[in-house]
Amino acid sequence: MTHDTVITGARVVAASGTTMCDIGITQGQIATLGSALTGTEVIDATGLIALPGGIDSHVHISQPSGPGIEMADDFISGTRAAACGGNTTILPFCLPEDGQTLREAVAAYRKKAEGNCMTDVAFHLIVKQTDPVTLGQDLPALIRAGYTSFKVFMTYAGLALSDRQILDVMAVAKEQNAMVMVHAENEDAIEFLRDRAEREGETGPYHHATTRPIPVEREATHRAISLAEIAGVPLTIVHVSNGEATEEIVRARARGLTVFAETCPQYITLTASDLDRDGFDGAKYVCSPPPRTADEWPKIWAGIEQGTFDLFSSDHCPFRFNDTAGKDAPGARTSFRNIPNGIPGVETRLPILFSEGVVAGRLSLERFAAITATNHARLYGLYPRKGAIMVGADADITLWDPTVTKPIRQHDLHHGSDYTPWEGFEVTGWPVRTILRGKSVMQDGHPVGPPMGEHLERGAPDVQL
Ligand code: DUC
Ligand code: ZN
Ligand code: ZN
Ligand code: ZN
Predict the structure, then answer these.
(1) End-to-end CA distance of the chain
(2) Ranges of Basic and acidic residues compositional bias (predicted)?
(3) Which of 128, 317, 343 best tests ligand 1's pocket when mutated (most atoms within 8 Å of CB)?
(4) ipTM attached to this prediction
(5) In this structure, are strands 54-59 and 17-20 parallel, antiparallel, or unpaired?
(6) Same structural domain for residues 71 and 7?
(7) Secondary structure letter of residue 333 according to DSSP
(8) Average pLDDT over residues 99-124
(9) Among 133, 336, 382, 387, which is most buried by a count of CB atoms within 10 Å?
């Protein structure tokens, strides 16, 4: 059989193990893993590693962010950056605008994405209201239609749900078999600390970090887990930033609870002191939860190495820095309260983890593939079509050069933001080709081809990781 495309010479991180073999691709799927395969097109990948295309299951694109504030990425630039960073699928969130129903929000996001994506896309929901129509009709119908995961917030005015509301939402997840993702920070505690900081004139970007200290996250993590236990549902704690929150997850699992956990590049590479940089530069690092001290990094690494963290995502939430619709929003220089929360990272997630994890000897290639692709596909209902190099799966493959060493530069990136928090951060290893369903969407650091990304139908979460 002659394949459409054969990739030769690569070290292949396949579901069945890591081996030297050819990958035969036909009609966008992996048809054969073997030797001496023939293909119409042959990609010589000698010296490269073939990894499952990255799945970034935590990104924000074109999300309503308050009056006058605009996210730096739409689906064109966001998925272009994702593809250039070695990703083949992303999962952004659908957040209803004020007055919009969840169903209307989903339709609007689908329309914005349609025809504009360089990666495949599937959507999580954000549940911010718990009225009878949302919980009784829209949410169950959307879950049944394949939107099988949603996020709830314990912080942010207008988004935060009370404990009772979270329980009511979890009850729907239980009934419909969906995954609940929780942003765990205690809003009342933050509000108390924020008011006090402002009264004392502590208003610079750094105080974003001091008003969201570790106990704010630890307490909310513990409470979210307890609520999930009471409701009888599995849950995923997203963007875990520190050791104490990690301990809550370890303890819950020891009690037999099904708790999944995600962490992000910012929590192993950035610190709160980055928010204290000269002038207003600290605003570039304002995200929630905030980066901690370098003392927390080894605790997060231990969680990555020991399997506490199932997911490594970017939490890409991009704003422009030199922009009054971004970090320089009205009032942002007089109080950190007004700085939009979030940092860009969809293009740098994989190189940072590869370099700091695989090259540094902390992480095997198999574990790298699991926490950057396979587990995302399993937890969010995309497996076995996505997330692994195996026969019958979509031919979503990233070819890595494990030897190149270079600093991350904004100049080389493709997102819509005008900065990267990792400017000058040196990494070893970079994706050189991203293949989506058999077609190259990035080659040698640049996007190629038309936007061929599709919306993905999803099944139920697989909670047996
Ligand atoms: N939470 C996120 O998940 N992303 C950006 C901001 C936030 O608070
Ligand atoms: Zn969040
Ligand atoms: Zn996020
Ligand atoms: Zn380019």
Answers:
(1) 35
(2) 454-465
(3) 317
(4) 0.92
(5) unpaired
(6) no
(7) T
(8) 98
(9) 387
Question: Which protein residue's CA is at the shortest distance from atom 5 of ligand 1?
Answer: 342
The residue whose CA is least distant from atom 7 of ligand 1 is: 288
CA distance 251 to 240: 15
Q: Which atom of ligand 1 is nearest to the CA of 93?
A: 3
Task: Specify the ligand 1 atom closest to the Cα of 156.
Answer: 8
What residues sit around ligand 3, an ion, with C-beta below 5 angstroms? 315
417 and 344 within one domain: no
Compute how many other C-beta atoms are within 10 angstroms of the C-beta atom of residue 433: 22
pLDDT of residue 42: 98
pLDDT band at 126; cut points 50, 70, 90: very high
Cis peptide before 215 (omega within 30 of 0): no
AA letter at 335: S
Q: In DSSP terms, which residues pair with 153 in a beta bridge?
A: 160, 183
CA distances (Å), 435 to each of 8, 45, 291, 441, 442, in order?
14, 13, 33, 6, 7
- What is the position in ligand 1's atom list of the atom closest to the CA of 155? 8
Q: Which residues make beta-bridge pairs with 426? A: 407
Residues framing ligand 1 (Cβ under 6 A): 60, 183, 239, 287-288, 315, 317, 341-342
Which residue has tokens 């009264």? 199
Structure tokens at 411: 């100049």
Picking from 343, 359, 375, the residue at the C-terminal end of a domain is 359
Which atom of ligand 1 is nearest the CA belonging to 185? 8
Number of domains in the chain: 2
Helix axes 297-306, 243-254, angle to 10 degrees: 30
Q: What does the alpha-carbon distance between residue 413 and residue 417 come to, in Å, rounded to a whole number?
A: 9
Q: What is the CATH number of the domain that holds 142?
A: 3.20.20.140
Average pLDDT over the chain, rounded to whole? 98
